[in-house]
């Protein structure tokens, strides 16, 4: 009985190894030509960033309350990415609007909430707030991206 169980286990290990080896061989050497052709025929189109213009906004100092009711401060420097000179001028003209939206989005939060967020999460929060407010005003955003240049907590 022990021999049968032992031989069965060895047979299963052999089958698993043979199947794994066959799968590896298929994936690495015997790939179907249609799959390879499809993979090579549709290269992803990448956006060219050669003409991007970086428009820095004025640094914002935002007062935040902590759990004990004390004031804390956050220094934030943002840069908007414009695709052309006209969009860059529009960003500069609308800077007070962007500053107001950013201040409104962050000022109602507690210090501990913002401090717990990662930089990417803060960027997402600000991007969502800007998109939401600009949509309410029926104003398209002239920027293609927003970069956080400085983020300091006190």
- Give the strand tally: 4
Indicate the percent of residues in helices. 40-55%
Structural class from helices and strands?
alpha+beta
User: How far is the N terminus from the C terminus?
Assistant: 73 Å
From the spread of the alpha carbons, the general shape counts as elongated
Quick one: biggest sheet? 4 strands, antiparallel
Along the chain, the helix and strand elements come as HHEEEHHHHE
Q: DSSP helix count? A: 6
Uncertain segments are 42-46
- Radius of gyration (CA) equals 28 Å
**Integer average pLDDT:** 81
Strand residue content = 15-25%
What does this structure look like?
The protein is an alpha+beta fold and 154 residues long. The chain contains six helices and four strands, in the order H-H-E-E-E-H-H-H-H-E. Strands 1, 2, 3 and 4 form a four-stranded antiparallel β-sheet that branches. Strand 2 (60-65) and strand 3 (71-82) form a beta hairpin. Helix 4 crosses helix 6 (119-136). The protein is elongated, with a radius of gyration of 28 Å. The termini are far apart. The model is unreliable at 42-46 (pLDDT under 50).
């Amino acid at each position: 009985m022990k021999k049968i169980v032992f031989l069965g286990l060895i047979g299963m290990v052999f089958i698993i190894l043979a199947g794994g080896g066959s799968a590896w061989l298929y994936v690495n050497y015997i790939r179907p030509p249609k799959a390879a052709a499809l993979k090579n025929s549709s290269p992803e189109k990448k956006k060219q960033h050669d003409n991007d213009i970086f428009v820095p906004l004025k640094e914002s100092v935002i007062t935040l309350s902590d759990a004990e009711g004390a004031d804390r401060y956050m220094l934030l420097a943002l840069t908007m990415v414009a695709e052309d000179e006209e969009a860059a001028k529009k960003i500069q003209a609308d800077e007070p609007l962007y500053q107001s939206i950013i201040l409104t989005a962050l000022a109602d939060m507690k210090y501990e909430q913002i401090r717990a967020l990662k930089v990417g999460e803060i960027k997402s929060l600000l991007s969502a707030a800007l998109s939401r407010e600009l949509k309410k005003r029926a104003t398209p955003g002239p920027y293609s991206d927003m970069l956080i240049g400085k983020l300091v907590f006190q």
